[in-house]
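Lecture 7 notes: from sequence to structure.
We start with the chain below.
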Amino acid sequence: MSNMKRRDFLKVSAGVAAGAATPMIWVKDANAQWNNQPEKGAKLRVLRWSRFVQGDIDQYMANVKKFTEKTGIEVRVDSESWEDVRPKAAVAANTGAGPDIVLGTYDDANLYPDKLLDVTDVCTYLGKKYGGWYPTCETYLKPDGKKWIGVPLGAGGSMIVYRESHIKAAGFNSFPKTTDDFLKLMKALKAKGTPGGFALGHATGDANTWCHWLVWTFGGKMVDKNNKVVINSPETIRALEYAKELYATFIPGTLSWLDPSNNKVFLDEQISVTNNGISVYYATKNSKDPKVSALQADVNHAAYPAGPAGVSTACHLFFNQMIFKYTKYPKAAKEFLRFMMEDEQYGAWLQASIGYVAHPLVAYEKNPIWSVDPKHTPYRDSCKELRPAGYDGKLGYASAGVLADFIIVDMVAEAASGSKSPKEAAERAQKRAERYYKV
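Predicted structure tokens for the same chain:
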């Protein structure tokens, strides 16, 4: 980082520490009206996913404290892994007891939409004030086109994370832009003893994002526009044949990798390429381990390469915020989500986590975190450009169920590892998905 950029970064960091007392972004409608009086004696319980960058949870909890000091509403926050949040939220929905608010992933809200509080008033207010929501937010959380069943939190961007020096040593001046060149790079890296690796276990973020990209970039998809399951297609099989070649270049053990796995092996210098959020780079910037911090200058980010379909779009990890109808304090819960999404809180959270979750509201494009370091910038448009996991159909219980069952990930893992042929893996995925997409 140049001296000027470093000074700029310190200025931004100082702004976070000071609490970002004044808005730092362009606001479309500063007079957007919000009228809500929380219930007296309200207490809230929030279930959210565990942090991958320390700045996330530190600033989130600082914002929670600020909310309590301002409103007198006590807020308990429980953190669980992504894999554990989903089943615990489902139990709460079915039993009618548990956390008031859940920070979930993808289209989990569509697993139990009738159990969720209508938050159209919150979303309308925030949308008017902050330049509107990106379209995919409505795709995920406004399934009927009228009512919001959750408040978008943003998206954890999934980019290619790589070591620049290793890429150059393998004969590439920049990261490949096509799947053909990507495979050549991966083979060259393995030959040099600096292989890559991508998660193939039930990793909610890392496995889902790259496996969906793989299928899409070869022209495959789970369903068509009529929600007919079409995953068993020539395009998908071609993608799975490619996956088998790619897997041969991976470091051993990726079949069991969960979301923390590739972070650990990358920072331990066992791999040169993976897909991840900005958490790897965050670690190099903030670690007290000299070995990890030494990687900062060598780590960079790139978009996924494009395959035969000409598509590089990734299935970024979308985050939602849901309020269960059973809450005793619906107004307090809405007030909490409104407060946490306002610039004074959300802007500071973006900066503290260096954009680990990319914003869902257009105005936050101007948050300085996206320009203070050019290595942050590739993650800025994650929520704007993401393709929903239920592409190319309508999101709902079926798409949420297919994703929760890791059908795409399992299919890619089976074909890549050779436990099933590409044809067998696609056929099995087709049958599994059809159980959810029943006519």
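Points to note: The chain has 18 helices and eight strands. The beta strands are 43-49, 74-80, 101-105, 151-156, 159-163, 273-276, 299-302, 317-323.
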